[in-house]
Design a protein that fits this description.
Blueprint lengths: L3 E14 L9 E14 L3 E5 L6 H8 L6 E7 L5 E3 L3 H4 L6 H12 L4 H14 L16 H13 L5 E5 L7 H18 L2 E6 L2 H7 L2 E6 L2 E6 L1 H6 L4 H11 L1
Parallel strand pairs: 3-7, 3-8, 5-6, 6-7
Antiparallel strand pairs: 1-2, 1-4, 8-9
Helix pairs in contact: 3-4, 3-5, 5-6
Length: 246
């Protein structure tokens, strides 16, 4: 039995592409092509595909950040929050860690300064940092520490859905495992769902209970990680599995 936290129905995202001539008309190009799927409550769903297949475009479409979409996205909770691939470019370099994490509360007008500070300190502890980091700037942090701050800022408002777009691909192997374990721990303790976007099948095998394989804007195969790894049906999935074992 499914318990969707959001679902897509025949959802497409389009880009306008100009011709080579200054006077040529732009053409409408379908990047995400008629997808229908759901993310269930407390589920970690993996979306795998090579760069340029439409994964990040789909994420932006789900968040309402793409202007040219058709079909339907139904959110059964508040809007998802997002963790990006490159924590350095996604964090405001002029803000301290405290200001970055409390930003959602400032925007929403929630809580006075002492309560915001208390919640930020609590959130820092949950992502494995301490109060010494409150006054630091992104440039003073390691890649793993920046991603911990990004995660803290995304979940401090207790969203029910987190979209993680290649959250560890910019990190070294040891730090990747630490961040993935942190996401698993937070997901279980705070009970939110994750749409985990990756080009790496091994990452989603480690994290996810269900996997979708994306190629050229379409879902070509889906199933449990065990089934995908042991008996991939689509030729593209077979290539990914072979590559992940190499």
């Amino acid at each position: 039995m499914t318990n969707p936290i959001f679902e897509l129905s025949n959802f497409s995202v389009f880009y306008r592409k100009r011709g080579r001539s200054l006077f040529s008309r732009s053409t409408r190009h379908e990047v995400v092509r008629g997808l229908s799927f759901e993310l269930n409550k407390d589920e970690i769903l993996g979306l795998v595909g090579e760069s340029g297949c439409g994964k990040s475009t789909l994420a932006r479409g789900i968040l309402g950040l793409e202007p040219d979409c058709t079909g339907q996205v139904i959110h059964y909770s508040s809007y998802p929050q997002m963790v990006f691939q490159d924590p350095y470019s996604s964090l405001n370099p002029r803000m301290t860690v405290e200001r970055i994490i409390e930003e959602p509360f400032i925007i929403s007008g929630k809580y006075k300064k002492p309560e915001r500070r208390r919640r930020v300190e609590e959130m820092l502890q949950q992502v494995g940092l301490d109060n010494r980091f409150l006054s630091r700037y992104p440039r003073e942090l390691s890649g793993g520490q920046r991603q911990r701050v990004s995660i803290a800022a995304a979940i401090i408002g207790r969203p029910q859905v987190l979209i993680a777009d290649e959250p560890v691909s910019a990190l070294d192997a040891t730090t990747q495992v630490q961040i993935l374990d942190l996401l698993l721990e937070l997901q279980r303790s705070l009970e939110f769902s994750i749409l985990l976007i990756s080009h790496n099948l091994s990452v989603v095998e480690y994290m996810c209970s269900r996997v979708m394989i994306m190629k050229s804007g379409k879902i070509v195969e889906s199933g449990t990680p065990e089934r995908i790894f042991e008996n991939p049906h689509h030729e593209y999935t077979q290539q990914l599995v072979i590559a992940s074992r190499g």
